[in-house]
Amino acid sequence: MLPARTVEMEARRLLRKHGVNQAPVAVEEIARRSGIVVRRKPFEGEVSGVLYRSGDVPVIGVNALDALVRQRFTIAHEIGHFLLHEEALHVDRHYPEIVPVKSTVSPSRRFNRDKVSGQATDRREIEANGFAAALLMPKEFLDDDLKGVKPPLKARQVDGLAKRYRVSQQAMIFRLMNLGVPMESA
Predict the structure, then answer these.
(1) CA-CA distance, 129 to 77, in Å (whole number)?
(2) DSSP-derived secondary structure for the chain
(3) For position 116, what pLDDT does the model report?
(4) Which CATH number fits domain 4-137: 3.40.50.1220, 3.40.1160.10, 1.20.140.10, 1.10.10.2910?
(5) What's the pLDDT band for 90 if we cut at 50, 70, 90?
(6) What is the mean pLDDT of residues 118-132?
(7) Mean per-residue pLDDT, 148-163
(8) 52 pairs with which residues across the strands?
(9) What is the pTM of this model?
(10) Which residues contact 109 (CB under 8 A, 6 or more apart)?
(11) How far apart are CA 123 and CA 110, in angstroms?
């Protein structure tokens, strides 16, 4: 498993490469500049996103039915797979509206984002989730936003940060917890 420090550094490197210095991070623009095509279509079931290659072109398929904050996290998560996991990336289910052909790659080399990927049971999913959090909610940006704020953070402050960064409240809470920022309990 990659150390969390390495995952954070990769997200920071990508932000610097694209000159991003404030929230909200234009994650879809970063994908495009990285040579990744983003396609939005409604998916059946619980899948939020997929990463595959169409020829030599990496493609992120995003569930258009998900909330915009979820779509942003999914794009960042799939960028994380693209940058952190060198193996060929394909999906393990056939989405004819997104993926043109069924994958025949072994399950250990396929990725999709669904409710299981968020449960921290697979090292690659943990790494991709950590990358997404670091990309969308960079520690340096949060540090700047929290200067002069007396801890613990109140629920309305966390909500304000989530809106500013265009992420879900849950994503912001997890990020702040992982960064050791004290918050009031609900």
Answers:
(1) 6
(2) ---HHHHHHHHHHHHHHTT--SSSP-HHHHHHHTT-EEEEE--STT--EEEEEETTEEEEEEETTS-HHHHHHHHHHHHHHHHH--S--B-SS--TTT-SS---S-GGGB-EESTTGGGS-SHHHHHHHHHHHHHHS-HHHHHHHTTTPPSSBPHHHHHHHHHHHT--HHHHHHHHHHTT--B---
(3) 52
(4) 1.10.10.2910
(5) very low
(6) 85
(7) 96
(8) 59
(9) 0.86
(10) 87, 88, 89, 90
(11) 13
Whether the per-residue pLDDT at 87 is higher than 60: the answer is yes
Phi/psi for 49 (5° steps) reads -165, 160
Average pLDDT over residues 40-56: 88
160 vs 146: CA distance, rounded Å: 11
pLDDT of 115: 56
Tokens of residue 177, six digits:
């917890």
